[in-house]
Here is the input.
Amino acid sequence: MKDHDPPLTPELLLRAYASGIFPMAESRGDPGMFWVDPRMRGVLPLDGFHISRSLARAIRKGGYRVSLNEDFAGVVAACAERDDTWISFEIEALYCGLHDQGYAHSVEIWRGRSLAGGVYGVALGGAFFGESMFSAQTNGSKLALAHLTDHLHRCGFSLFDTQFITPHLATLGAFEIPRREYRLRLNEALEIETSIHEKPLISDGYSVMQRSTQTS
Here is the structure.
């Protein structure tokens, strides 16, 4: 859908997520948006995140700090800084609005004072809708996803929606399910009463690895 009427607001965006659809733009400067409802939906298992040997080495090596919502705007901006992006300026502003209202969240990976990677998305009930991620340094996005997935699991979430499947996400354990199954999982997740602030974010990477059921 382009040139939407009424204008897309944070409130309308939340209703769209609860219905199983999400917006995208053609480019950074695109003034319009369209709704997406994939036939096959990507999901990341909260109890089966795959920690590869290289990611395990990065966790054991340490030298990074993890945070929740410390620089949401910085994570979104970094995700949009690529030649081919669906994050238009209007979409960026909408998600920052959702963040201000307490619905959109980010996990950041820091090395020193620099953002090494991050991921952001929207939380509703027990569902987390992952929007985008970035790596400014090796394993930045993987570290962010490992900590976020562990945190969502500990907080009682049941659904981590990745929208689509990429080779990168597949290596972490993500898989596809049909639209009908996704809607069923979504409806169940929306009934869960929890919050991303239900538990404190655990910064210890070793405990994240221990709780992962798929380390190879």
Q: What stands out?
A: Residues 46 and 102 are 22 Å apart (CA to CA). The longest strand covers residues 114-124.
